[in-house]
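Now for a sample.
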Amino acid sequence: MNANANPPRVYRYYDLIMASFVAVLLISNVASTKFLRLGPLSFDGGTLLFPISYIFGDVLTEVYGYARGRRVIHVGFAANLLMALVFALVGALPAAEGWENQEAYKAILGATPRIVAGSLIAYFAGSFANSWIMARMKVITQGRWLWMRTVASTLVGEGVDTFLFVAIAFYGLWPDALLWSVAVSNYLFKCGLEAIMTPVTYRIVRGLKHAEREDYYDRGTNFSPFATQL
């Protein structure tokens, strides 16, 4: 061991943000089992909370950098996969005598393989698209115009996430008109919420940069979504 090596940087709030991000992700996926209709918009229940995960993603990349944001995305992916596997295992095991809610369980938590695959692939691709744009635009703009970076990254990331999920999970099962209606409604709602939350994002970013004494710029960063090093 190199005694002269610098110890890894310790942050006060990074773990808390990671835990909050994963909680939002898992809750959103469970809430997505119900579809809602508000006015002209049709969307799954997870849409009410899921856009907050993109706010966390923006904050992580803006303050701590792409590599630490990537670690959080990996943890979220692993937690989401574990949840899906446990739900599937519990659904496949025989119910205890007298417990008569097996069909209700399957209807709510027994997601089909297509929905699970769509959720995981869409989350992975959308989250990294969001983080990559945030990191690259920060360097290009020299740290200015945070609102432009958060909005641009959300437009792309949420677009990738929403349309990939709907296409993988439901294409061929739903009429094309319903498919597009749900996809567009989800996309507009998520992007609109992100725009509304921009002042909150500014406040959180400013507070974290001050508390952590960090404002990371991704110059020379390895942007592979599969890398593990910080």
